Amino acid sequence: MLISHALQAVGCTGDHRYEEHSETGAQIMAVEADTSQNAAGGMKRSGAVIGILSAISLSHLLNDTIQSLVPAIYPVLKNEFHLDFGQIGLITLAFNLTASLLQPAVGLYTDRHPQPFSLAVGMSVTLSGVVLLSQAHSFWMIVLAVALIGTGSAIFHPESSRVARMASGGRHGFAQSFFQVGGNVGSSLGPLLAAFIVLPYGQPSLAWFSLIAVTGIIVLMRVGVWYRKERRRPKPAVSVAAGMEAVFSRGTVARAIGILIVLIFSKYFYMASMGSYYTFFIIEKFGVSVRDAQLYLFVFLGAVALGTFVGGPMGDRFGRKYVIWFSILGVVPFTLILPHVNLFWTVASSVAIGIILASAFSSILVYAQELMPGKVGTISGLFFGFAFGMGGLGAAVLGQLADLTSIRFVFNLCAFLPLLGILAAFLPDTRKKTAKVVKDQ
Q1: Is the CB of residue 2 less than 8 Å from the CB of residue 51?
Q2: Domains of the chain (ranges, CATH numbers)
Q3: pLDDT tens digit sequence for 72-81
Q4: Are 91 and 146 in contact (CB under 8 A)?
Q5: Which of 59, 311, 305, 370 minimizes the C-alpha distance to 175?
Q6: CB burial string 406-427: b at 16+ within 10 A, e below
Q7: Alpha-carbon distance values, 249 to 166, 259, 429 (Å)
Q8: DSSP, res 22
Q9: Are the C-beta atoms of 392 and 101 separated by less than 8 Å?
Q10: Where are the membrane-spanning stretches (predicted)?
Q11: 308 φ, ψ (degrees, to nearest 5)
């Protein structure tokens, strides 16, 4: 269904209630004035929205399938190149820091100068990283290869998040979840592909995954055509940005953004422990094979995909503040027991952690976009970039800590990170404020 909708997306130019466009070099949020025309054209819009959302979600799936291969093949690389945990952490740091440093800059630039075809360019850079990784014969070549994959991801995420918002029809939480669940499904596929392809056939088999990148380039070229047409169409609109700025003072916005950044730190430091070291943890504690460990990682990442999908719509319905609060703080019981239970309950706890913790990001991202309307690229780049950066820094720090202590010590320590979710109580409620601004307009 996702693929069929994606392939039908070319040429779709349906109307949308909410869209971002460029005016005098700056992005503003537009609200379509003629609501009766919106209602009359609902069916046509729906097809166009789902087609574009499906295409961008499929592209996210392809992009994140490739990048998820990096941590999934860590056991292979560790044995092949005789790496220690510190070097594993540095590989993750190279990928995540490349993405984190570039994404805010890409988002800021594309807010002022939208680039419809930058999505395909980003996937092309990822393609070069995949090919190099399949042929790497030293530690530093591996670092360079994953840095290229990180660069491609940095170019992809801010503009693809903007496309998802453009095609949302006003359901921003749903659109972000639909977009992000593609990435999470892709991330969950990495361990499976590593278990059934890379483990049996070795590092050179990674070259086959260049076909995934090529497919992504084709889909994103078609999305770029739609994006360019949407930007050129005239849109009767009124700006709500000024009203939102009047509702939330700069101090309130700065404090809220600061809290969100702390929550991202908490979430992605813990996710770094799971994504990079969960396989090593269960291999060491339970003596399972590398292949079985990859399958258990797949179960966790599948739970992350499910949590991502439900998180956005829940934020639309119940309020993003409360979803953020629950999704960070609600995992604490499971993170605390995971290091101390048997294999069955370890896997069960990982599923609960994945579903609950992953429900946060869509709501965090849309919440921040509501705080700073008209700056979709900047906000997307900042939060995607910070998430990647915290994941990379977490992997590097935790890898060094595991070398000095043990993997079990790392998981016991990280179990307390979600307690920072209590800070979500201090976030302002944007639902009432946004409704007031729209009514006043």
Answers
A1: no
A2: 2-440 (1.20.1250.20)
A3: 788 888 888 8
A4: yes
A5: 311
A6: ebeebbbebbebbebbebbeeb
A7: 26, 16, 14
A8: E
A9: no
A10: 85-109, 116-133, 139-157, 178-199, 205-225, 253-273, 293-310, 322-341, 347-367, 379-401, 407-427
A11: -60, -40
**What distance in Å separates the CA atoms of residue 264 and residue 383, rounded to the nearest whole number?**
8
List residues bridging with 18 in a β-sheet: 31
DSSP class of residue 420?
Answer: G
- The residues with which 31 forms a beta bridge, in sequence order, are 18, 238
Strand pairing partners for 237? 32
3-state SS assignment for residue 406: coil
Q: How confident is the model at residue 31 (pLDDT cuts 50, 70, 90)?
A: very low
Structural contact between residues 73 and 194, judged by C-beta atoms closer than 8 angstroms: yes
Find, among 95, 436, 71, 90, the residue nearest to 280 by Cα.
71
Report DSSP letters for 282-297, one per residue. HHHHH---HHHHHHHH
Residue 56 has pLDDT above 60, yes or no: yes
CA-closest candidate to residue 150, choices 226, 90, 196: 90
**Measured distance CA(193)–CA(378) in Å, rounded:** 34
pLDDT class of 247 with cuts at 50, 70, 90? low
- Spatial distance between the Cα atoms of 128 and 48, rounded to a whole number of angstroms: 32
- Please report, as a single letter, which amino acid is at residue 211: L
Tokens of 283: 């291999």
Reply yes or no on whether the pLDDT at 60 is more than 60: yes
Closest CA to 373 of 244, 255, 257: 244
| In contact, 246 and 100? CB cutoff 8 Å | no
Contact 418, 329 (CB under 8 A): yes
For 9, phi then psi, to 5°, come to -70, -25
Q: CA-to-CA distance for 266 and 412, rounded, in angstroms? A: 15
Could you write out the DSSP letters of every residue in 82-123? T--HHHHHHHHHHHHHHHHHHHHHHHHHHHHS--TTHHHHHH
Give the C-alpha separation, 392 to 269, whole Å: 8
Give the mean model confidence (pLDDT) for residues 342-363. 91
Distance CA 360, CA 379 (A): 16
Mean pLDDT of the chain: 79
17: nearest Cα among 227, 225, 163, 235: 235
